[in-house]
Amino acid sequence: MDNDSNDLSRRNFINTITGAAALSLIGFDRKAIADTFPGQDIITDYVGRLCFNENPLGPASSVIEAMEAEASMAHRYSDWFSDSLVARLSAYHDVSSGRILCGSGATQLLRFCAMILCGPGSNVVVPSPSYGQFAADAELYGSSVRYANLGSDHKVDLDAMMGRVDNNTTAVCITNPNNPTATVIDPGDLSAFVDDLPSHVVTIIDEAYYDYISTPDYPSAVELVRSGKKVVVIKTFSKVYGLAGARIGYAVGYNEIMNTMMGYRMICMVSRSSLEAAKEALRSIQHRSDTIALANQAKSYCFGEFDRMNLSYIHSEASFFMVNVGSYAEGVRGALATRGFYVRTGWGMTHHIRVSTGTMEEMTGFIIALEDILNMTSVDGEPPRPGTVELYQAYPNPFNSSTRIKVYMPETAHARLDIFDIRGRLVNRLIDGALEGGEHSFVWNGVNIGGRDVSSGSYFYRLTSGDNVIIKRMALVR
Predict the structure, then answer these.
(1) Fewest C-beta in 10 Å: which of 8, 347, 370, 442?
(2) Which among 341, 357, 351 is positioned nearest to 299, based on CA atoms?
(3) Taking the CB of residue 337, how many other CB atoms lie within 10 A of it?
(4) pTM: predicted TM-score of the whole model, two decimal places
(5) CB of 381 within 8 A of CB of 460?
């Protein structure tokens, strides 16, 4: 991979990002997110990008043909409310069309849920660590977020979540399989959990990776919707269907909330080409099977190699997995990035990296690079440091009193480490001056520039040094 074309140096652009707009960049490796340089075309070489859980096979050939055939109609608006696709999904899931809403990716549907269910004085309950979209949107609309830690098996702890619910809770949101741990909830336990919730609480279940579940006969939460439960299920075409760039997802939910969500929709939220792609994707049964088979093959190969290398890993029911690299994971991630393999770290799991399944060639190269890096680590005591500025994940995260933020400088240079609230307002500045080459640690104790305690919520921390600008997110829970 051409590392130069994947190095984020878009200072002028990043410096303008505030509030919710920054969420699109949170937690991503800066090299992996930089698809373009200003004034240049979008790159097409994504080899080694094992950080976004994308489908390495891409869309089915028939889906590509459907999109190309629709290109000549780009001057005409699409179905105003995606009715042609809704009809297909209604038959596919055996639910009435009035219970389905399509949107520009699952993220838009999660945003709609937050718009409807969240506001000042209310709270939502989510597991931690997990996918943070709904939690961030909930805070944006004024709700407080209550986190329930995963169990020791890295699965969502439903009892812990129930313990966080109170009279002001409006929603609980569960990603199943969970992201980043790729674990699933027992379906019977999930159904009982929904039944036991107070009647004023809505359950949102994000099933982005449902198709990859290997547990036999594992039911979709759409069955809970069919049985009349107060549930909204979020689905996407981004993963198993390979349409992440087409931005199309949908929600299936109980009548009352879906009727409300319909009031927030706008016309033509999904493009003509994306609609045709989604409709054809539903027919592409073989491509779906091939995608799942490749993911299983990639996981089986890597798990076998991890056994040989004496590395522990979390059993995966998704298109990604987490492995304990037995060392400081941020350093391993950075070293892998210098070799063209981009993975994810964070979530308070300081020894784990999250790896998306790719082609077998990518997985083989990843294992070779990882083993070489870890062998060097065992000799030197720590992973080899990359030759770039690094901002590591705050730990602990979420935190209730203080958290530690580490940065790495390859050489002496000026650096500024700022903390912003979710609306993009500067809260504190931890450093604004020269830092020598090496690793530096800063503690933020949840106070603003004036020394006063700040409230619970999401905060962004941004490291700026030369052309490097890196942004990550953390959560303060008082």
Answers:
(1) 442
(2) 357
(3) 24
(4) 0.83
(5) no
